[in-house]
Amino acid sequence: MTSTIDPDTTATTKTTTTRKPPSKKRKRTARRPREFTNFDVWILVGSLISAICLNWLIFYRLTDGASAFGFFLGSYVTFLVIFAAVSADRVGRLVATDRLMTVVVVSAATVVFIPLVLLIGYILVEGLKALRPGFFFNDQQGITPIMPATSGGGYHAIIGTIEQVGLALFWSLPLALAAAVFLNESRSKWRRPVRIFVDAMSGLPSIVAGLFIFATLILPFAKSGNPLFGYNGLMASLALAITMLPTITRTVEVVLRLVPDGLREASLALGASRARTVWSVVFPTSRTGMTTAVVLGIARAVGETAPLLFTSFGYDLMNSNPFAGSQESLPLFVYRNIRKPDIAAVQRGFAGALVLMLIVLGLFAVARFIGRDRSKRRAKASRQSVSTTQTSKNQLAKGVAK
Amino acid sequence: MTDVDVVVESDLEENLTESDRDKAEKIFAKNVEIIGGPPPGPATLEAKDACAWFGDRLVLEGVDLVMPKGQVTALIGPSGCGKSTFLRLLNRMHELIPGAALDGEILLDGDDIYATGTRAQQVRMRIGMVFQKPNPFPAMTIRENVLAALKLARLKCSDKDTLVEQSLIRAGLWKEVRDRLDSPGGALSGGQQQRLCIARSLAVHPNVLLMDEPCSALDPTSTRRVEETIDELRGEVTVVIVTHNMQQAQRVSDLCAFFLAAENQPGIVVEQGPTDVMFSTPTDPRTLDYVQGRFG
């Protein structure tokens, strides 16, 4: 193959070279106008160091009025000015402006990130001091103020949280689904008021939900002595259901709205009733989204303390029956322990907070996983034949072209 | 996408071997009974003075049109002249749009589908519909998609496997999907999805099949497959098809109705008749202009 072609090509190159005057072949370099090279990193670091030095000189050597805040702010501003000036000198004003804005945005994002890291780090450090495997197997029975933080545990609180949130989900899920279907699938003129009502409800202070249950279900039956209407997990679950309801409703509604109308029409055209369409077509299509909604609803309720204050009240010992007697839950465990005067109890509170945080983190991870799973599958289906190597090659080519 | 199209190319009807034909005959010899489904055979559909409103706006006025049993009727005309609205009148999909109203009669084998006491769901089961955009149910497999009508309209069927095979063969999709009936319907190519939707509509053995520009989202090869399917359905099902493609109307239809709406006027049927007459010697000059591509 090559031997037959070779003479041809050499012939053509010969003819072209004889016709055209020999020209220098331009050396090709791949240029990337927006590239951030190692040298630019040095500029960044250099600007930062010189800004800090300059401000150290101003704030701590030349003047007396040394304030840390002024030092940081001054350093930052000086850093920006130096970085902009040096960049402008090296790559021109246009690119320098772009880089300056990038630095400002990135530093702003970092500032926002700091409190989160501090918060999580603090709870992690404090919580780990008292968190031992025993935390998951013991309640607070026989715990006295002089005992170390690692004794006892929050087993009773974890069980209480699971029971209360589980019951709350049991109450609110059917209601929320029904409300979301009403908002999205019906053509009632009451949809608008209901939507406003749901929105208003999601802004309801959660303590009001607890107060509502206290005032309507606990207080009027206080003298009857019926444990079902006293302080117990059931009452807490009702209060939590009130806080979960708007969250789940709105999320499910959004998810249902994403189902294309074409599917509903297709279903109706096949002879399905509207109810059947919702049940057999709309729900299955949005199944993953609805699961995410439920997980978000749980995550919302699991960290609520205020609705529990007047409903489940809190209890130091294990009470696995949610229908009678006051019950502990993780947020209440944290709240009650951190208020105690002894350091060991405070540390136990931090351990509870850490466990609670891990539970919420786990729930969000589950929600993300479910959501990701769906989009991945769809992407897979849409680019069946395009191989990943091809895409990466394309991206590379694009990058080079830039 | 490309490799899927290659499969379509090599699977065209001419390439069917004798044994395939025998197999198909054997499959169709089996009688699948659908309990509660439509009565067998095609049906005549007739519109008498049909009018349609959206809110206060009259969009379609006085349509008289007979769509004879077992034949293919094409509805042609420029955009916004009420073809799709008319089509949706025929299986009571029009009334689902908020603010929509109608007048006149639509007779299915002589019975008004809008008569009081007639259930819209029963009508829609007898008069199937294929939409412009392929819309298989993404949460269902190919097999479940074909059988969706049974589940949705609460029908019972004596032999589901045979029904799936029959429906997919009739829609011209069987050979391409028989090995992956349990994969999701959304993973097919656009043309295959549309044929899956046709199979889904055919599964309950409707008397009439309405098609609202079924090929407008498809490439030429898939369009050809769908047209072949329509051709094979001739005699078994009454087909009413809305199309913007003159050549398609000419190729597939026996009868043709030309819809037109003057500015701020409701749509009317300007002319109707056998397709060959409509495309060669129409009586109305506007029809001639349209079929010859002088406007629209």
Order of helix and strand elements from N to C terminus of chain A: HHHHHHHHHHHHHHH
Order of adjacent strands in the largest pleated sheet of chain B: 7-9-10-4-11-12
Overall mean pLDDT of chain B? 88
What's the count of strands of chain B? 12
Largest sheet of chain B: 6 strands, mixed
Morphology of chain A = flat
Radius of gyration of chain A: 32 Å
Helix and strand content put the structural class of chain A at: mainly alpha
**Percentage of helical residues of chain A?**
over 70%
Mean pLDDT of chain A: 85
Portion in helices of chain B: 25-40%
Tally of separate helices of chain B: 13
Distance between the termini of chain B: 32 Å
The secondary-structure element order of chain B is HHEEEEHEEHEHHEHHHEHEHEEHH
Ranges of chain B where pLDDT stays below 50 over 5 or more residues in a row are: 1-13
Distance between the termini of chain A: 36 Å
| Main sheet summary of chain A | none
Taken as a percent bin, the fraction of beta residues of chain B is: 15-25%
Task: Explain what you see.
The complex is a heterodimer of chains A (402) and B (296). Chain A has helices at residues 2-19, 38-62, 68-91, 93-130, 155-185, 191-202, 206-218, 233-257, 261-269, 274-285, 287-302, 306-309, 330-338, 343-382, 388-401. With 402 residues, chain A is mainly alpha-helical. The two termini of chain A are 36 Å apart. Residues 1-17 and 381-402 of chain A have low confidence and may be disordered. With 296 residues, chain B is an alpha/beta fold. Chain B has a 6-stranded mixed sheet, sandwiched between helices. A 4-stranded antiparallel sheet of chain B has the order 3-2-5-6, covered by helices on one side. A two-stranded antiparallel ribbon of chain B has the order 1-8. In chain B, strand 9 (208-212), helix 10 and strand 10 form a beta-alpha-beta unit. In chain B, 36% of the residues lie in helices and 23% in strands. The two termini of chain B are 32 Å apart. The longest helix of chain B is centred in the last third of the chain and has 14 residues, at 220-233. Chain B has 13 helices and 12 strands. Chains A and B meet through helix 9 and helix 10 of A and helix 1, helix 4, helix 6 and helix 9 of B.
